[in-house]
Amino acid sequence: MIPPKLRTWQHRTLIANLTAQTGIVLTGATVRLTASGLGCPTWPECVAGSIAPTSEQTEAFHKYIEFGNRLLTFVLLIVAIASLFAVFKHNQERRLAGLAKRRSLTVLPLGILAGIFAQAILGGITVLTGLNPLIVAAHFMVSVGLITVAVILLVKAQEADDRPVSLQVARPIDLGMRIHIWLALVVIAVGTLVTGSGPHAGDTNDIVRLGFEFRNITTIHAALVWLYLGLTAGLLVALLATAAPKHVTKQAWIVVGVCIAQGFVGYTQFFTGLPWGLVAVHVLGACLLWIFTVRFYLARNTRG
């Protein structure tokens, strides 16, 4: 019996979920880059006695930027619930076709819902600790985790079933791809240390920064990016040499392209004094690079 495929609305809902998880990172970066991190100086209220900004606040436009970002949490919740409903309806169609429901498709959106609540609490801790750079970094890394789950859900939902996976690439390449995804995570983590050492502290007041010398930590970050790009290029050559499936090679090409573009933005922002618009683009690029790195990693296996 042929398993039912995702309906168009279900597929678009899961894409919207991934888009929303990525978008909240960009809006969060905008809060920091416009020095609006303490636009609402308390949590869960914006200011003592009021959930929403008040005219008596002295934070000017910053309060609206920070409050707007908080409101987007509800958008994430709505999209995550819609994703849960989409996979629920898909499993219903599977049962009607005489097939077992895929529990994994239910677990993933439930994990996203739990992560959103955890992220909201961590956001509150970020405010209450006066934008401590380590908490800000943790806030970003949780978003990276939520993006990861959203990508896995989107890819997994398009598979026919939950049968064991089979490797599509040579084992040495598989090892390289495992190292590749962990290296990408290290690059992103070190990038948060660059952020925590740089001038965009998230507020107009003096905010404690990490103790790294900015140029030194940036040089380490850049070196890791070059290592990541070199490994990506090596994997691409290996895939072409071993006649790996075209869709795996295609994902490698995409990662190379996004990495080069991200590197260009990174160097440009560094040598132009870190204008906040370019920094925001760099944050978006980091999210896109991670998304395609995860997709590249997942492409090495197939089910059935």
Strands, helices and their partners?
Layout: H1 8-33, H2 62-96, H3 103-128, H4 133-157, E1 165-167, H5 171-197, H6 214-241, H7 246-271, H8 276-298, E2 301-303
Antiparallel strand pairs: 1-2
Give a verbal description of the structure.
The chain has a two-stranded antiparallel sheet with strand order 1-2. The model has no long low-confidence stretch (mean pLDDT 94). The chain contains 8 helices and 2 strands; from the N terminus they run ααααβααααβ. The chain folds into 2 domains: 1-162; 165-304, no CATH class. 71% of the residues lie in helices and 2% in strands. The protein is mostly helical and 304 residues long. The chain is flat.
Q: What is the count of distinct domains?
A: 2
Structural class: mainly alpha
Which strand order do you get reading across the main beta sheet? 1-2
Weakly predicted, low-confidence segments: none
Rg over alpha carbons: 21 Å
Task: Give the termini separation.
Answer: 14 Å
How would you sum up the global shape? flat
Q: Please give the share of residues in helix.
A: over 70%
Oligomer designation: single chain
Number of strands: 2
Q: What share of residues are in beta strands?
A: under 5%
- String of helices and strands: HHHHEHHHHE
Profile the largest sheet.
2 strands, antiparallel
- Our count of helices gives 8
Mean pLDDT: 94
